[in-house]
Amino acid sequence: MSPRPADLSNAFYAPTLLPAFEELLSRGVPGEDLEACFRRTLLELRTPLVRVPLFLARRFWDQAEAASGESAIGLLAGKRFASTLTNGLTYLFDVAPTLESACAYFATYFPYFNGSLCAELREDRGQIALVLSEQGALLSGRQSREYTVVGICSLLRRKLLASGIQQDPLLCIDLPGIEPANAHVYEQALRVPLRWRSEAIVLHLSPELFRRPLSPPNAGLEGTLVGLLEQARSQTQSTLLDEAADYIARELPQGASFQSFCESRHLTERTAARRLLSHGWRYSELLDEQRRFRAVDLLEDSALSLAQITDLLGYGDLQSFSRAFSRWYGTSPGAWRDALPR
Question: What is the dihedral of CA 179, 184, 190, 195, to 10 degrees?
Fold first, then answer.
């Protein structure tokens, strides 16, 4: 896992987590705990067009795993995705006349909803795949990826069932990482053959079904839904919180100081601090959170030494990094790395 390009926004569309919220609430997790995680009310998070920094999704999934006691909570929560989540993209996916057009729409608009994950269709010698790859400076995280994969599988299967086709559009799925001890949970949730140690998430689709007409074309409705999505993209404005999170993710190796951030935005430190606090955050907290999640991403890359990771996180020395890591996770970076499955 090499360092990633940093040119994409590390923000995601908060309402995509609504099915996960419902899953946790049904398990007895207090709503106040979810609100504390985001430092926003659930009402705010349910509001259309709300985008928040990606590190908040990482915080949420850590909390979800701890509160539920389920190491595969992303998979389990994802089962609610197709039945609970409604937005312009899911509607557009449903009304598209073929899987090909549905997946093309998905690849176009998916990054708006999902931060650093990008989607693309690949066709090679008759083989067709929908590929999800990490492109941002901060990775989306395992639970988030699994939640997304289950949701996409549900959308694909629902589309065929709505057309009266009993065949599964999925042939197999390639997943990052090594095969886990609880692989049966993945097999039960995804209901398709799985292959591990992939660089990206790859959903292999049935060529036979890919271009088969599934519903009568409705160019008018498709155009309306595309217009709504384009309008949402154009009307969604980043907040100073988003900008600060993106700046930190991009400038970590250089330290990402508050002073340099304020200078880049032509703001006084006092004004920037007040505006960030109105979103519930101090800049020092944002820097700490970004470093915390970036650290575990980098530790998974065995080619990087601890000294290199220290530099990439913007720490002056390994001792400072080790102290911070111990505060975050109760162990040293080296011990964390040694405990990773191989």
Answer: 30
Structural contact between residues 175 and 186, judged by C-beta atoms closer than 8 angstroms: yes
* b/e map 156-166, b = 16+ CB within 10 Å: bbebbeeeeee
Domain regions of the chain by residue span: 11-235, 240-339
Q: What is the tens place of the pLDDT at every residue in 183-236?
A: 999 999 999 999 999 999 999 999 999 999 998 999 999 999 999 999 888 888
What is the distance of C-alpha 314 from the center of its chain? 24
Place of tokens 């969604």: 236
**308, pLDDT greater than 70:** yes
| DSSP H or E stretch at residue 195 | strand 194-195
Q: Kindly report the CATH number that applies to the domain delimited by 11-235.
A: 3.90.1520
> Residue 304 and residue 308: Cα distance in Å, rounded?
6
Place of tokens 């990094």: 321
What's the CATH class of domain 240-339? mainly alpha
